[in-house]
Amino acid sequence: RKEVEQDPGPFNVPEGATVAFNCTYSNSASQSFFWYRQDCRKEPKLLMSVYSSGNEDGRFTAQLNRASQYISLLIRDSKLSDSATYLCVVTPNDYKLSFGAGTTVTVRA
Amino acid sequence: NAGVTQTPKFRILKIGQSMTLQCAQDMNHNYMYWYRQDPGMGLKLIYYSVGAGITDKGEVPNGYNVSRSTTEDFPLRLELAAPSQTSVYFCASSGRGGEQFFGPGTRLTVL
User: Which residues contact A95 (CB under 8 A, 6 or more apart)?
Assistant: First the structure.
């Protein structure tokens, strides 16, 4: 089983729509969780950390469910600029990250 | 701060050639990493380092070597390049338990 699994998508949504997707992780001892964003042919960049109580950053909401070992990302009021691949990242310890293969989101006008 | 820098941006190698991918960071991070990303796939960890003089293997170390003589630099060496090493290579650095910052990547083709 892969350490981190994501629905690859693509999720094709109109501007203004809400899109949500999950990722699951296999290591129950994982300590930290992140969503990274990767634009085409660019390096990944941190979008947001994911906290146990859930957290928001503008139009983005992340949730963590430790019991079921998944994290989620919800994007409200989608913009064209939200088109990207979103990488789910889990840390089994404090210096190594495990990356999912990514979920592709395309926002159309 | 320049962050994480990588050179070269692009390279084409012939089978059997060798090269070194350079990576440097100016954030005084202890942790540095090398990943490869094949088309449509996630990042796979090749090697990592938790400090100068300390390196360790990741998931896919075969065909690569690293060294970490300074905090700032973490070069990746490819010996005897093979077509299977065609990929995009990303270097990253982080503080303890913190966000990883990535370089812009090196696109390598082995023909």
Answer: B31, B48, B50, B94, B96, B97
Could you tell me how many CB contacts below 8 A there are between chain A and chain B?
Answer: 47
Radius of gyration of chain A (CA): 13
Distance in angstroms (rounded) separating the CA atoms of residues B28 and A40: 29
Phi then psi for B85, rounded to 5 degrees?
Answer: -90, 5
Give the tens place of pLDDT for each residue, B9-46: 999 999 999 999 999 999 999 999 999 999 878 899 99
- Residue B45, CA atoms < 13 Å, CB-side half-sphere: 22
- The chain B residue lying nearest A101, using CA atoms, is B42
Beta bridge partners of A21: A73
Q: Are B64 and B48 spatial neighbours (Cβ–Cβ below 8 Å)?
A: no
How long, in residues, is chain B? Answer: 111
pLDDT single digits (tens) B42-81: 899 999 999 999 999 999 999 999 999 999 999 999 999 9
- The minimum CA-CA distance between A83 and chain B, rounded to whole Å, is 16
C-alpha torsion angle, residues A23, A29, A31, A35 (rounded to 10): -10
Q: Do B104 and A42 touch (CB under 8 A)?
A: yes
Q: How far is B36 from chain A (nearest CA, A)?
A: 11
Residue B40 tokens read as 């449509």
The strand pairing partners of A12, in sequence order, are: A106
